TrEMBL record:
Reported function: This protein specifically catalyzes the removal of signal peptides from prolipoproteins.
Keywords for this protein: Aspartyl protease, Cell membrane, Hydrolase, Lipoprotein, Membrane, Protease, Transmembrane, Transmembrane helix
Catalytic activity: Release of signal peptides from bacterial membrane prolipoproteins. Hydrolyzes -Xaa-Yaa-Zaa-|-(S,diacylglyceryl)Cys-, in which Xaa is hydrophobic (preferably Leu), and Yaa (Ala or Ser) and Zaa (Gly or Ala) have small, neutral side chains
Stated name of the protein: Lipoprotein signal peptidase
Membrane-spanning parts: 12-32, 69-87, 96-114, 134-158
Source domain of life: Bacteria
Active-site positions on this chain: D124, D140
Gene that encodes the chain: lspA
Subcellular location: Cell membrane
Functional pathway: Protein modification; lipoprotein biosynthesis (signal peptide cleavage)
One Gene Ontology molecular-function label: aspartic-type endopeptidase activity
Organism for this UniProt entry: Mediterraneibacter butyricigenes
Gene Ontology CC entries for this record: plasma membrane
Enzyme Commission number(s) of this protein: 3.4.23.36
GO biological process: proteolysis
């Protein structure tokens, strides 16, 4: 397989997974609006976990209320950075876990951006009553899981030399 077709394969799979993840997020939000809005919470495990509809105008813990432009701009910057880094990574199996993290992160960011642009709020519906955790959604799960996996990969899987290609490319550009 040529290097060019390898690039195309990785980008193609990433776009398909991104679209699929966003569709799952948006589908669950649609179900939440349809079945939970203006309804009593749906108790899954009494005093522990429930589905509770919330229109979130801010971020976790209610911070930055009604600052939709901030979240949209932030998500777009993160997406641009991730796409740049995704392109810079060598297209080998070694970096596949990192690529999965990137797709999850962008899926979560864009899933919530869609809500912010279309509705001016994000639909949240998962609630851990037992620990009074902020209500969240599938896109939030993507972001949190990708960040945790990213940290685990950086600390326990990848070595410093796995990212030497970043400085090597800069050195090649400086020498030309």
């Amino acid at each position: 397989m040529t290097q060019k077709s390898n690039h195309s394969k990785y980008w193609g799979v990433a776009v398909i997974l991104l679209i699929l993840a966003i569709l799952i997020d948006q589908g669950t939000k649609y179900l939440a609006v349809t079945h939970l809005k203006d309804q009593a919470p749906f108790i899954i495990w009494k005093n522990v976990f429930q589905l509770r509809y919330l229109e979130n105008n801010g971020a976790a813990f209610g911070i930055l209320q009604n600052k939709q432009w901030f979240f949209v701009l932030g998500a777009l910057i993160i997406t641009a950075f991730v796409c740049y880094f995704y392109h810079k990574l060598p297209f080998t199996r070694r970096y596949l876990p990192l690529r999965v993290c990137m797709v999850l992160l962008v899926s979560g960011a864009l899933g919530n951006v869609i809500d912010r642009v279309m509705h001016r709020y994000v639909v949240d519906f998962f609630y851990f009553e037992w620990i009074d955790f902020p209500i969240f959604n599938v896109a939030d799960i993507y972001v949190v899981v990708s960040c945790i996996l990213f940290l685990l990969l950086i600390f326990f899987y990848y070595k410093e030399e796995d990212f030497a290609f970043l400085t090597e490319q800069e050195q090649k550009n400086d020498n030309t």
